Amino acid sequence: METRKPIEVLAAEVIEALKQLNYAYNTVCGIRASFNRICAFARDRNERYFSEELGQAYLRNKYGCTTDYYLEPFPRNAKQAIRSVRLLGDYQLHRVVIRRIVKKKGYVKPPQFEEMLTAYEKECEANEYSLRGMRSRLQRLFFFVDYLALRNVMNVGDITPDIISDYVISICPRHEKSIAAILTTLRVFLRFLYLHGYTETDLSLAVPKPTRYRYPAIPSTWEPSEVKRMLDAVDRGSPRGKRDYAILLLVAKLGMRVGDIKALKLSHLNWETKTITIVQEKTKVEVTYPILHDVGWALIDYLQHARPVCESPYVFVRLNAPFEAFGENANLHTIMTHYIRLAGITVPRGKRHGLHSLRHSLASVLLEQGASLAVISEILGHVDSKSTSVYLHTDLNGLKSCALDPEEVFRNA
């Protein structure tokens, strides 16, 4: 027996659901108009019901694209159409409007899950997860919690493998790495619920595991000449330039992480021994960096002639009042992009060009100079040398030397 509803009825129900969720009036009007165009397309094709195939055909015919927005670019005017197709498909399958991209400031936990979510947060803190890692983990989890609330699940004991399966379907298609991270977060949370007595069965076993092994991406690196051009582009006569130059050198010459640079305090600088000693934010391991000649003079120049007079204990502060440390979520990405443009360096499409890429460049140079993975791992502050081994892929000359000569193989056969 046919259980699907005609596409016009389905579209009307989605509009009512959006109104109940307090979507803006203009947003609802725009989606309603988009639904009308999709319904007209379905009538022209003599199709009564919505299907993923119909949605894909509509996007290809009207906009020349598909909903695979994570794999291929799409025209700007297709954004509303893609969103409308996803709304119809989600509602037909789940009977709820799934909010895939939600940035919530001060997330409000649903009352029925508040106790266990708070307990899980404390568990993460006890395991000493980094603030950034815990924030990402909880954000992924909140999507699942919102889905349960939309499905009117009032108790974690009511979660079933079928509900988990429906949720997993709702997050696809996405980038492979994103799916793996979401599933891992979900699996760990459900395991936590079972071990702490919130559920009678271990629902983590119902979460599928990716069967395809994913090779880590080759790190983005810069040629030494490009790094020099970037540094030469800094205006070291201005306060901003003095500060940015010191930051760039700390990454490019010492391999410090952005989080550690933001957390760097004046007390961490030991001028007598010419060292910087910190506890790394990511690994919680104490590490000591040498204050190299150029790094030391850049820091002195910034501290004496550019750093605002303030009571902040941090080395690097904002140059505009209030003179405080960089924000928790600041990744200092604009520093790199600003001087890349000034230096006239062309960034290939898809290449990462944040400050972290300077760490990659340092590792690549050290590898080419013959440094062992153990030494590079110590310099970069890696706890596991496996994290460093990925840089072997950047040493093209070293890889070429490992290649076999077919003629030599045949001669010795």
From TrEMBL:
Give the keywords, sorted: DNA recombination, DNA-binding
GO process terms (BP): DNA integration; DNA recombination
- Output the InterPro entries linked to this UniProt entry: CB, DNA_brk_join_enz, Integrase-like_cat_sf, Integrase_catalytic, Integrase_recombinase_N, Tyrosine_recombinase_XerCD
**UniProt xrefs under Gene3D superfamilies:** 1.10.150.130, Intergrase catalytic core
Q: What is this protein called?
A: Integrase
Provide the GO MF annotations for this entry: DNA binding
- Residue intervals of the Tyr recombinase domain: 217-404
Higher taxonomy: Bacteria, Bacillati, Bacillota, Bacilli, Bacillales
Q: Ranges for the Core-binding (CB) domain?
A: 111-194
Q: Which PROSITE patterns match?
A: CB (PS51900), TYR_RECOMBINASE (PS51898)
Matching entries from Pfam families are given as: Phage_integrase
